[in-house]
Write the structure tokens for this entry.
Amino acid sequence: MPSFKPQSLTWPADRAVLLVHGIGNASAADAPFPVHELANALGASASNVAVYTLNYDFINDWAARKLQVAPGISAIGRAVAKRYDNAELSETLAEYVGDIIWPVLHQDTRLAIRDAYMAQLQQIVLDCGESALQRGHDPLEYRVSIIAHSLGCFHTYEALHAAVREPEYRLQPGSDLTQLESVTLMASPVQLMRTVAGDIGALVPAASQLATLDPSGLVLPVEIVGRKLVPATRKFVSVTGSQDPVGGHLLGKKNGWAFMDIAGQQTTIVPQTLVAGNAAQSLALALKAGAAPASAVASVVPNPHSWSDYMTREAALVAGLLA
């Protein structure tokens, strides 16, 4: 496996954001990071923000990995179809959602991505210190945020819990003074993954090592310093759409078993509308179009899981978090 080289930037001012992608190939022309949407959201202040992108595609040889865990993927499909209990959509949902949550079945992939994630966060901290000291500023006054989408939310959740629990990373918010300004998870499948992974049980390797599957439930990542709890981030934000099955909604109805609702999070539910008529058919078409290359399928129905759309529709929220 090729070695991961974290991105290093000189900060233009005192703010930085890390974008973490979800499913698909983030290197492909049809699936870029939403940097243009971010710039539009920030407006005139965009030039003051250092924008990092975490691309772990070199780790994700998706086809090969998926062949290794084929029985587990079949189990995911059955679990998803049963959970959603919608005959018209079950096959599409099983395939689409399965593509997002199957990495819980492959421990080596998860750990490799987590190591890359931690290396990138460490580099951001180094860049922060160097950029601040070059200007004679206090690095503690510089701010780092994360915006993740879809499967990237899962990797972010796991990375943050590793950061607060494992001192060797030197990323603990209290002991190492590396508290993030904000973490925004867009269309997070963390609760969905927790539920379905529980359904397929023993097929998930080293489940006890996953913060997502902690028996005590989903919690905000915090470091315990004496009697004090120091959160990994000052603001923990969840954004999902009212029609996004990955974010816990199906045809406008919230599914508690799939909706991430962690105590202490700030939640925004984006109103979404499907094409009038057969809503289930419209959703199936949107998901299939969103999962295919842009040149292969005409996007006649807006994909409720689109990262670009979330960034555009919640531009004011994003700008406020990075202000």
Remarks:
- Residues 107-134 form the longest helix (28 residues).
- Residues 292-299 have pLDDT under 50 and may be disordered.
